[in-house]
Amino acid sequence: MTVLVSVAARRRVPLAAGVCLLSFVVFWAAQRGADVSMIDLMVYRAEGATARAGGDLYALRATEAHLPMTYPPFAALLFAPLTVPDVADLRGLATAGNLLLLVVFVRLCLRLIDGRGHAPVGGRRGHARVETALWVSAIAVWSEPVWTTLRYGQINLLLAVMVLWDLTRRPGHRWAGAGIGVAAAIKLTPALFAVFLLLVGVVEAVRRGGRTPAVRHACVATTAFLAATLAAAVVLPDDSRRFWTRVVFEAGRAGHPEQTANQSLRGVLARLLHTEDPGSWWTAGAALVCAGGLGVAVAAAVRGERAWGAAACAATALLVSPVSWSHHWVWCVPMALLLWTRAARRGGPARRAAAGGLVVVFCSYALWWVPHRPGRPELDQNAGQMALSAVYPLAAFGFLAVAAAVARHTPRGRTECPEGASGTALRRWRRSRSV
Q1: Per-residue pLDDT tens for 69-90?
Q2: Which residues contact 12 (CB under 8 A, 6 or more apart)?
């Protein structure tokens, strides 16, 4: 029976690949038909050119929108190669690269979800998981965060892949943590994953004694972040000084916080209070959400639910960041997959509704149904408009509530099966005990 299932899954992979390719081609045509500017990609290109020329990165204003640089200077070093191809070729390469990264991202999400031994979404391991990754990618490309990421030529999928690459490594992997560290050197938000790993490691060390792999991963992430940041300081000393002493504290540099596209807690409070500066309300709220969200993430991870812990950490980072544009929410993909697998395993109308509701939220483009033209109309929203322009944070809070329930109902003694030879030996021992 296992052989028959494997053969059937292998035969379905070409169909899934064909549908995924067709979805990507239609998506590409729709993007070209909409005449997308890929404005953020042009900003990245200008930043790379400024770094090569030795100019002032944080005095730069790129494109017709006069957008500034908001990332650490290490990012500008990585953007320097973007100046080599012409603009038309660069846009094509960026779109193709992001579509490939989407498939890798979904594949890593499935690997993380399957890391505790559950059957992967859609069936057994191997071909079934490849097939599922292709089907999910064909659908996920039409979600608002992914659509907008490709529309602007953003790097969100790249950063997410770097983080998940770390979180799906075996516990003793030498470089596990490096991806998170480098991602944080490019953009600060992924640094919360290093804090998450450190807290998981501390809790596990207290419970079991000795140093745990999570602590090592956090240390590697910190080392990689410091190495990348110091390398940027050597090459771009003036820009590094400007960023770490001044620019990093300018939360309003990225744009007006009340903009509909800002789906962070700060954006919600700015619209709710009809002010461009929520001040202490946001500071207090962000501190509470960060503590609660990390608590949920750590509780899930130490009980063996690594995927729930990672997704809860991502939701927390997006909520507490001063600015979380809608295209930053590509982490909706693992959130939806986790809710889907939970509904598939346990059934029940409430679980199916939760999974379907999350998909609808991120595929409905509901946040753009409210006035968002120039003139800052978000400061005068009514109650219905506020609800629509807060759909992503509301979905994140709902996901954190489900993650907390999952962690609470997972037995404390449950742990992940080791990988490699030790995992094989453990499975053989369990089989022998059953016999």
Answers
A1: 999 999 999 999 999 999 999 9
A2: 127, 131
